Structure formats: C-alpha cells, structure tokens
Amino acid sequence: MKRILGTAKGQKTRCRRESMLLYAVTDRTWLGDATLAKQVGAAIKGGVTFIQFREKHLDKEAFIREAKEIREVCMNYQVPFVINDHADIAAAIDADGVHVGQKDIDALDARRILGEDKIIGVTARTVEQALRAQEHGADYLGVGAVFQTNTKADAVEVKRDTVKAICEAVDIPVIAIGGIGEDNVLQLAGNGLCGIAVVSALFARPDIEQAARNLKRLSEKMVNQ
Ligand SMILES: Cc1ncc(COP(=O)(O)OP(=O)(O)O)c(N)n1
Ligand SMILES: Cc1nc(C(=O)O)sc1CCOP(=O)(O)O
Hints:
Elements: E1 22-25, H1 36-46, E2 50-53, H2 60-77, E3 81-84, H3 87-92, E4 97-100, H4 107-114, E5 119-123, H5 127-135, E6 140-144, H6 160-169, E7 174-177, E8 195-198, H7 200-203, H8 208-224
Parallel strand pairs: 1-2, 1-8, 2-3, 3-4, 4-5, 5-6, 6-7, 7-8
Helix pairs in contact: 1-2, 1-8
The structure holds the ligand Cc1ncc(COP(=O)(O)OP(=O)(O)O)c(N)n1 and ligand 3NM.
Pathway: Cofactor biosynthesis; thiamine diphosphate biosynthesis; thiamine phosphate from 4-amino-2-methyl-5-diphosphomethylpyrimidine and 4-methyl-5-(2-phosphoethyl)-thiazole: step 1/1
Pfam families: TMP-TENI
Organism: Faecalicatena orotica
C-alpha cells in the first residue's frame, strides 16, 4: 500500500498541519475486553488524525507485536503512526516516526536513526527547548501538561503564556497535551496551536468513535478561533 508520508529529501511535508488536529496517544488502561487495534480503529473512524503508540508496561516482544498491529490499522486508514520513545523500534517496524521527550534521545539522533523521510515529534515545555528541537529537525512539538492529568504521573504544568510563546517562536506545528477533554479544549483557543493530543478523553470513554467526533469538532473550533 502507498504510504502517505513518503517525501522527497528535504521537503517539509513529513507532517501536515491538518494531521495534527486530533492526535491520539494510546493507553491500554481502559482496554477491557476490546483490543487496542479495535479501539484505535474506532478513534480513527470518529476523526482522529494521528496516532502515537505509547505503551510503558509491555515487554519488547509484546510492544513490537502490538505496534505492528496498530501500524497496520493506521496504514489502512492512511493516518500517521509514530512510536513513543523508541526510535530503534520505529525504524525496525517502519513506523512513520517517533515521539521523544526531553529525557529521551535528541531529535538529531532520532533523525540519524530514522532518516530524512520520517516524522520526529518532540516534547517541549519552554521556548528554549522548542527552538532547540526545531533546530535539531523536529517536525512538530507536543507541549504540556496544559491541564491537570492523572494519565502521566510525572506531568508538569505548562502555563498558557508559555504555550503561546512556544507557538510564536517556532514554525513547526505545535499541539497541546495533558488533561484535555471536551469541557476545556476551547480554553486553548488563541494560542496558535495546530491541535490537541489526548489519551483518556478518548480511550477511557465507552464510545470512542463518538468521543473522537466531539473532540474533532471542538479542536477545529479551537484552532480556528
Ligand atoms: C504529543 C506528545 N506530547 C508530549 C508527550 C510526552 O512525552 P514525554 O515527555 O517523553 O513523556 P512520555 O510520553 O514518555 O511519558 C507525548 N508522549 N506526546
Ligand atoms: C503522554 C502525556 N504527556 C504529557 C505531558 O505533559 O507531556 S501529559 C500526557 C498524558 C495525557 O493524558 P490525558 O489526555 O489522559 O490527560
């Protein structure tokens, strides 16, 4: 199947702004009897535009097996698929890219591992981190936590002024993450964000497809307000 993300060298089309509108980060906490592939499928059907596979408690073998399964789902729907933290695994399974934090490998090293065509996302919590990530070849930034969250134990709050300053400082797309839900997404309007990244507002919900539909509509409104 044709990949949507294959680009000529140097072209900045690895990561389209529209793809950043509703970014879903996986989490098995609320799986129940479902499979993650099924949940991700429902999220995409509802309008999710980007998937990050983030699984902190799987051993390497299970991680790779599951990541390959989710990659297939994303390929079928032509939705970008990145792996959290592990650039080597992203390369090994031909994911569309990797998302790395400030405690992970640098974007420069991720680029060396993955090559020119892959997406590299970086977490930034200050303007300095954002500018360095952009200089080092990041394709987009995740900024958070913009609200209180129970999903990431070591999340650190990022103030709204900082979100805005980061969006103004860089040219690459910036998305917000952390505690975002239908009730507060519109509070993020006016900061220059390209979209939102969510975990529990999708995967903890009984109807993931409907939750995605609601969040997509609100995210579009937030970005355009
Ligand atoms: C889109 C997005 N933004 C931020 C993060 C957080 O990354 P990081 O700081 O590396 O923390 P962990 O995800 O590894 O706990 C993210 N994953 N995605
Ligand atoms: C993966 C992640 N990173 C964060 C950060 O602040 O960098 S917060 C977070 C979890 C976001 O989960 P929820 O949408 O359920 O609040």
